[in-house]
């Protein structure tokens, strides 16, 4: 069963929306869901529906609403306890809980690409304003405001991760629309100024500051925050620390101009493995198997360069996030394969010459193994000619 709070209140079971009654009964359900697996007193339910002026029949009416909800959701879902009721639901069944769990994962990610994708997954759960069909009930409206604040923070943090990835040009139109909708949110204004500056539009970044400065003065009688004023000063003097600094690709993974031929399908396979890791936020080991001279090292270097160009953190050896590459897997590398997190380990090995411990570790730990086919004569010729 899927309980949906991040938009109009809905309950979906087997892809079918269940009938959950009129506004007052829905307000009761909302309160039970907001405190899922905890006792909600009848007095609280009455207050959430009628406020300070409940009718004399309020308790009987609450009982009627709960009886209808038990009929729809099941008696095991909505349980009667002394002086109140309790709705039983797993966190994974409530979209608001899934949202906050993803928010925790995104904030813990050390790779901005993983963070940005996780924030996107969290924000994709929203179907509109939280419980926006129940805004006439002050108690519900207050709870919904808490989720709206988390949503606003998640959006700003996702934009921050995208800025760290060098996606400033693509962000400018989105940020312009956001500051038009929320002109007093200074963090969005700062992000717009940064995106404009990094896109080579210093004059536009300064103009954005003048607009928000005038707006704050005219609307609130305030000056911009010290942080926004400092950003303005840094843009004026073209402060080099505003430029995006990306961690360099490890030297041992640099392709160094060597030709890359015949392994496009293998490269695409590796990229797909990373896409799944980034989407799920779960670590994975994959292996590239091939004899000496099969192009294993060249493939890994090309993959490393491709990921680095996309803004993904790439490591030679151990890491906690991003892509970690272990070329010619050895015994000393085996403890690294127990690492967890939003990390893709790519290990290469020679299935013929590798010792039994390495082969056993690959069999036990690898989520997938890609065996390299020999290059064709034409592909070998391209390498030689180049």
Nearest-integer average pLDDT: 86
Approximate shape: flat
Order of helices and strands: EEEHEHHEEHHHHHHHHEHEEEHEH
The number of helices is: 14
- Evaluate the radius of gyration: 27 Å
How does the helix and strand content classify structurally?
alpha/beta
Q: Work out the helicity level.
A: 40-55%
Strand order of the largest sheet: 8-9-10-7-11
Q: What order do the helices and strands come in, and which of them pair?
A:
Layout: E1 2-4, E2 10-13, E3 16-17, H1 23-34, E4 40-41, H2 42-50, H3 58-73, E5 78-81, E6 84-87, H4 95-108, H5 112-123, H6 138-164, H7 168-181, H8 186-198, H9 202-220, H10 226-236, H11 264-280, E7 284-289, H12 296-309, E8 314-316, E9 322-326, E10 343-349, H13 356-365, E11 368-371, H14 377-385
Parallel strand pairs: 7-10, 7-11, 8-9, 9-10
Antiparallel strand pairs: 1-2, 2-3, 4-6, 5-6
Helix pairs in contact: 1-2, 1-3, 4-5, 4-6, 5-6, 6-8, 7-8, 8-9, 8-10, 9-10, 11-12
């Amino acid at each position: 069963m899927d309980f949906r709070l991040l938009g109009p209140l809905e309950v979906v079971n087997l892809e079918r929306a269940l009938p959950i009654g009129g506004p007052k009964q829905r307000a009761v359900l909302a309160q039970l869901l907001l405190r899922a697996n905890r006792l909600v007193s009848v007095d609280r339910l009455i207050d959430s529906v009628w406020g300070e002026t409940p009718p004399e029949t309020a308790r009987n009416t609450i009982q009627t609403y709960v009886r209808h909800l038990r009929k729809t959701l099941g008696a095991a879902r909505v349980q009667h306890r002394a002086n109140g009721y309790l709705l039983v639901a797993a966190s994974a069944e409530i979209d608001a809980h899934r949202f906050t769990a993803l928010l925790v994962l995104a904030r813990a990610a050390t790779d901005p690409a993983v963070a940005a994708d996780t924030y996107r997954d969290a924000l994709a759960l929203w179907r509109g304003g939280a419980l926006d069909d129940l805004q006439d009930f002050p108690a519900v409206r207050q709870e919904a405001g808490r989720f709206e604040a988390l949503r606003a923070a998640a959006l700003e943090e996702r934009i921050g991760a995208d800025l760290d990835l060098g996606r400033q040009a693509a962000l400018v139109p989105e940020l312009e629309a956001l500051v038009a909708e929320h002109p007093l949110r200074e963090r969005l204004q700062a992000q717009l100024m940064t995106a404009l500056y990094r896109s080579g539009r210093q004059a536009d970044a300064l103009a954005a500051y003048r607009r928000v400065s005038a707006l704050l003065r005219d609307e609130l009688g305030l000056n911009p925050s010290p942080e926004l004023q400092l950003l303005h000063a840094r843009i004026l003097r073209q402060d080099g620390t505003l430029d995006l600094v990306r961690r360099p690709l490890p030297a041992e993974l640099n392709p160094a101009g060597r030709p890359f031929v015949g392994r496009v399908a293998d490269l695409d396979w590796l990229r797909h493995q990373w896409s799944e890791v980034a989407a799920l936020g779960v670590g994975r080991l994959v292996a590239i198997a091939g004899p000496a001279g099969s192009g294993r090292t060249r493939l890994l270097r090309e993959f490393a360069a491709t990921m680095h160009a996309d803004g993904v953190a790439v490591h030679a050896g151990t890491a906690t996030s991003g892509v970690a590459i272990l070329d010619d897997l050895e015994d000393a590398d085996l403890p690294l394969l127990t690492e967890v997190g939003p990390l893709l380990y790519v290990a290469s090995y020679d299935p013929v010459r590798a010792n039994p411990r390495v082969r056993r570790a690959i069999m036990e730990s690898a989520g997938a193994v890609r065996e390299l086919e020999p290059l064709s004569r034409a592909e070998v010729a391209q390498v030689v000619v180049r």
